[in-house]
Design a protein that fits this description.
Layout (H helix, E strand, L loop, with lengths): L1 H86 L3 H14 L5 H38 L3 H8 L25
């Protein structure tokens, strides 16, 4: 009976050691998986900011060109009206010229285009601010996780480090859109 007991003890100890090793392996892998997921969230948040900044540049130039074209159109229309007034002293001819111009150009609305431009820019800037805030939140969450014990021990060995990020500097970049309505 003593020989039966002798082989059970090493088997139980061996199974316990294997269970502890497997638990450690799965624990480290779980920590790494979570770090990978958090790192991807940080990268996505960073990409979202870049997408909105690209949108801002594209939007500004396209809307500025549109507004410039409408301004040109309205200037031509008003010039035609003024020329119609100046060419004749007859009020009926002026009225006819104004009617002809207004039929050719039923609505003058460049101020609406300016409003649209400002609205789009405001929305874009709000989105950029929102995405920057999200990025900061994701970085903080990632850094908190990577620095916690015991995960930091394993993650440092696997190459995961605290990410640094900078606060905004409010200096306009060299390629920032400026003086958009100048010819």
């Amino acid at each position: 009976m003593n020989s039966k007991t002798n082989w059970k003890l090493p088997l139980i100890v061996g199974a316990g050691v294997i269970a502890v090793i497997l638990l450690c392996i799965f624990g480290v892998q779980s920590s790494q998986n979570k770090a990978i997921a958090l790192e991807e969230q940080v990268n996505t948040a960073s990409s979202d900011i870049k997408v909105q900044e690209k949108r801002r540049v594209d939007l500004v130039y396209n809307l500025a060109d549109t507004v410039k074209q409408y301004d040109k159109h309205e200037a031509e229309t008003l010039t035609a009206i003024v020329d119609g007034r100046g060419s004749t002293g007859d009020i009926e001819n002026v009225t006819t010229a104004i009617t002809a111009v207004s039929e050719a150009y039923p609505e003058l609305k460049s101020n609406e285009n300016y409003k649209q431009l400002m609205n789009e820019l405001s929305m874009t800037e709000n989105l950029i601010a929102e995405y920057r805030s999200n990025y900061n939140k994701q970085i903080k969450e990632y850094n908190r996780y990577v620095r916690k014990f015991p995960t930091r021990t394993f993650l440092n060995m696997l190459g995961y480090e605290v990410q640094t990020y900078t606060y905004l500097d409010y200096k306009a970049p060299v390629d920032a859109p400026q003086d958009l309505f100048k010819d």
